[in-house]
Amino acid sequence: MKSETNLFQRILVPVDFSPCSDEAFRVACQMARLCKGSMTVVHVIDTGALAAFNRLGLLAVPSEAAAQRRRLRHHARVNVRRLEESEQAKGVALKRIIVEGSPFVEIAKIARMDKVDLVVMGSYGGRSGSVDKIFFGSTAEKVVRTAGCPVLTVPLSVVAGKRKSG
Question: Which of 20, 34, 66, 96 qualifies as a cystine partner to 122, CB 3.0-4.6 A?
């Protein structure tokens, strides 16, 4: 039986570099320190959204798809490194993973494979107003249903409001 202080030894933090995701990262760092646990930071390059945008000609033509993926991976590495080197992450054991696929599928897969104790994620991400969310539900909702472990969702407005007043 785990004690209160080491209840969440393995924490998974999906990030999309949105303000809400940054707040979730901050909360996860605090949880990891409190529970003396480690964190895995995961960024999923959403290949479904990329394909849809590319079909519409909004991001890249087919001949540029490979270069586009390389740019997105580089962007993800740079931004995850920024989080790793941030003040919030000081003293936290961090591992990073960058994968391609459907965000909720990849997050749930990592949570199960790595036997994660807790997923901490923003309640909405960079595409919060998208048609996809209206019809299919948010990534956070899907992760809650499929991760196989507790999921803490962090809404930006609540966390930001508490930080200002407290």
Answer: 20
